[in-house]
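Changelog note: in this version the structure field was regenerated for every chain. One regenerated record is shown below for reference.
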Amino acid sequence: MNGTPVLELKGVHKAFLSPDRLREIRVLNGVDLAVIAGETIAVVGPSGSGKSTLLSLMGALDVPDRGSVLLDGTDLAAMAERDRARLRSRRIGFVFQSHRLLPQCSVWENVLVPTIPLRRAVGGGAQSGGAAGNGEPPEDRARRLLRRVGLAHRLSHRPAELSGGECLRAAVARALVNRPRVLLADEPTGSLDERTARELAELLVEVNREEGTSLVVVTHAAALASLMGRRLELHGGVLAA
């Protein structure tokens, strides 16, 4: 790990209109954060404190009202949505509590889905070798990741045929297939039993170490938060150690 920030938030503010659209609800009030390459961070806080909003901004799914979000020095808010989406697919991986696997696709197909836009961009499917990075064909990368997360025997299964823990393991493999700079996880263990949650938490830490990808998790789980190198609390719209 070095001291170079992969992702930076500077003076980030975000507000939303109330359901009756009569008042503004301030969620983030000048958030500053620097995510160093390869580090692990847990963001905790009470429900409704804005943790998921913060993760959406970090993941280029939304833009701040004020302030900047920089990924490798590039200001995400200054980009057109199409360019931001392209950057997001290349450099950011997501793991959600609900896993969001495509029900009609096999585990194998689900993991390969994020590589499709990149393979089109380089103009040639697996033979181009660029989608997974380092010259590794996407299929090889997907197979290796699925083996790493313990799903080598489940390639042809669909999500409905998997346990909740297996679905989230597949989601981890999918999130990593394009070698993202940052992996963002939103309550990844929230729907799991204690043993499965512990196994998934340990897996996230292990793949962070192996892949060198920065890891930021939003969680209520003390056990998961304790495994991260830094623990930050979001309260009153600001982050504090």
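Spot check on this record: The chain has nine helices and ten strands. Residues 124-131 have pLDDT under 50 and may be disordered.
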